[in-house]
Specification:
Layout: E1 6-10, H1 11-24, E2 29-33, H2 35-39, H3 43-50, E3 55-58, H4 61-69, E4 76-78, H5 87-94, E5 97-100, H6 103-111, E6 118-123, H7 135-146, E7 151-157, H8 170-180, E8 187-188, H9 192-197, E9 208-211, H10 227-230, E10 236-248, E11 253-254, E12 260-261, E13 266-271, E14 288-291, E15 294-299, E16 307-310, H11 312-317, E17 326-332, E18 338-339, H12 341-347, H13 352-357, E19 365-368
Parallel strand pairs: 1-19, 2-3, 2-9, 3-4, 4-5, 5-6, 6-7, 7-8
Antiparallel strand pairs: 1-10, 10-13, 10-17, 11-12, 13-16, 14-15, 14-17, 15-16, 17-18
Helix pairs in contact: 1-3, 7-8
The structure holds pyridoxal-5'-phosphate (PLP).
Pyridoxal-5'-phosphate is lined by residues 33, 35, 79, 159, 191-193, 210-214, 220.
Length: 374
């Protein structure tokens, strides 16, 4: 028998979360961001549930090929554009739209031989200082692109650094408005956090929104708001079983480095999940976990293949637990109890994004088909 660990992808939840984006930005078109293999979920596993989006946005040309291979004929956007000249051949062949964020990418386009002009998204650096043309260089970049026979429509995009936090987006919206003023073309500004937190602003709802994490049921502004606040549903469950138990006496320690010491007699369970499965080793004692749907905590260090959980809350409540009991590392238990991935991420000092993207190759994944309509 294989190890009992597995991940489940909830397609009903993906559909629900996409509907939340639609609801927040009813007049925008929605890019479903499926970079990083759909945030660790697997492009092929999320495709059916997300094909109600208007397009798919990603970074990797191989991933774009996979989306086309699934039969998607609508828009696909390369969020970082091309990396080398021959990537443009694939863009032509698969009719990919691509970001243009630097002069080198314009040079490549100018040298590219194509029958079909490309749709491009010119990227403004409005303050993130990662990719994009500085505001004072934006118009000349646009003029250069606009003069190329290789280029068809030019859209405008920028990316927010603080849509999830107190600084907000106003300064970047202002920079964007100034730079693109009276240039023709569609606009795309918002990521998930902007969609959820700033959707009242007309600029945020402009033409295309780029929704990633919200689709995967993690709150972009956790812990200020949780998934309950945003009415999102978990799309990935990581679950395993207990494969052993231990009875501890006061003074007994648990695991490598003896990081946990029992203060009173207590029972612990050993779950078949470790950092080689993608569970963060940074999660110290106290990280939330569900056993048979009951919320408890991890104790001691996470090892490569196992971690220990405190069974005292279950024993106190009279909930039976032992070898074979269901352990939910994040997501939904069979009882329906939910442990948000964001709670686990917080215990590891990171965000839900990193946990879902880090799900290890060795973890088998099952797709839970859509629940029948109620
Ligand atoms: C990843 C990414 C997004 C999606 O971000 P979320 O916070 O997951 O919604 C949007 N735009 C760009 C350019 C990205 O790289």
């Amino acid at each position: 028998m294989p190890r009992p660990i597995h991940a489940t992808i909830h397609t009903t939840a993906l559909r629900h979360n996409l509907a939340r984006v639609r609801h927040a930005t009813p007049d925008a078109r929605v890019w479903a961001v499926v970079k990083a293999n759909a945030y660790g979920h697997g492009i092929e596993r999320v495709f059916e549930a997300l094909r109600g989006a208007d397009g798919f946005a990603l970074l990797d040309l191989a991933e774009a090929e996979r989306v086309r291979h699934l039969g998607w004929r609508g828009p696909i956007l390369l969020l970082e554009g091309v990396f080398e000249p021959r990537d443009l051949e694939l863009c032509s062949r698969l009719s990919l739209w691509h970001a243009v964020h630097c002069d080198e990418q314009i040079d490549m386009l100018a040298a590219h031989k194509t029958q079909v002009p490309h749709r491009v998204f010119l990227k403004l650096n409005s303050g993130m200082n990662r990719l994009g043309f500085a505001p004072q260089r934006y118009r000349s970049a646009w003029a250069r692109l606009n003069a190329l026979p290789q280029v068809d429509e030019i859209s405008h995009m920028t990316h927010f650094s603080d849509a999830d936090g107190p600084r907000g987006i106003a300064h970047q919206v202002q920079a964007f408005a100034t730079a693109v003023q009276d240039l023709p073309g569609e606009r795309s500004l918002s990521n998930s956090a902007a969609v959820l937190r700033h959707a009242q602003a007309p600029e945020v709802r402009a033409d295309w929104v780029r929704a990633g994490i919200v689709l995967y049921g993690s709150a972009p502004d956790h812990p200020e708001h949780d998934v309950g606040h945003w009415h999102l549903q978990p799309t990935m469950t990581l679950a395993t079983r207990l494969i052993g138990t231990q009875q501890l006496q006061p003074g007994d320690t648990v695991g490598y480095g003896s990081r946990f010491t029992a203060e009173q007699p207590m029972r612990i369970g050993i779950a078949a999940c470790g950092y080689a499965d993608g569970y963060p080793r940074h999660c110290g004692t106290g990280t939330p976990v569900l056993v048979n749907g009951v919320r408890t905590r991890t104790v001691g260090r996470v090892s490569m293949d196992m971690l220990a959980v405190d069974l005292a809350p279950l024993d106190a409540a009279g909930v039976p637990a032992g070898v074979g009991s269901e352990v939910t590392l994040w997501g939904a238990s069979r009882s329906g109890a939910v442990l948000p991935i964001d709670d686990v991420a917080q215990a590891a000092g990171t965000i839900g994004y990193e946990l879902m993207c880090a799900l290890a190759q060795r973890v088998p994944v099952v797709v839970e088909p859509d629940a029948p309509a109620a």
